Amino acid sequence: MQEKYLYEYAVIRVLPFVEREEFINVGIILLCKQEEYIRVIFTVNEAKLRSFSKDIDLDQIKLNLKAMEQIAMGVKNCGPIALLDVPSRFRWLTAVRSSAIQTSRPHPGLCNDLEQTAKRLFTELVS
User: Fold this and answer.
1) pTM score > 0.90 for this model?
2) Could you give phi then psi for residue 125, rounded to 5 degrees?
């Protein structure tokens, strides 16, 4: 019998106009505490984002998403948050904020394969 992993995930969203609360799903963050596994997967659909706002700063959005990915991976030169343990990095990345990049509330799940689950969630919720 294959081991089941308890995981949490959140959807990464871009809000071109924060005050309108309209968003576009651009990625996911998946955490499995028992395996010390965290994964950020994202894509930037420029045409879709520009349909919301022609003035959106896509370069800044991409930089911020890349920073989220590097913090999740624990890249040493990404500041003190990247040096925290895996669950703390996930909690920081999914904390409620009012910026142009936000996440959904975390959702739990069980799976046999964390990498496959991350890819499946990305495909279902973003692609």
Assistant:
1) yes
2) -100, -15
The full DSSP string for 73-127 is HT-GGG-GGGGS-HHHHHHHHTS---SSEEEPPPEEEEES-HHHHHHHHHHHHT-
The stretches in the chain having pLDDT less than 50 are none
Alpha-carbon distances, residue 26 vs 74, 83, 88, 126, 127 (angstroms)? 21, 25, 22, 6, 8
Close Cβ partners of 15 (under 8 Å, ≥ 6 residues apart): 21, 22, 23, 100, 101, 102
- Domain parsing of the chain, residue ranges: 5-125
User: Do the Cβ atoms of 90 and 7 come closer than 8 Å?
Assistant: no
In 3D, which of 105, 106, 126 has the Cα closest to residue 49?
126
Q: What is the pLDDT of residue 15?
A: 92
The 3-state DSSP composition of the chain as helix, strand, coil percent (nearest 5) reads: 40, 25, 30
Does residue 32 contact residue 55 with C-beta atoms inside 8 Å? Answer: no
Give the tens place of pLDDT for each residue, 35-48: 999 999 999 999 99
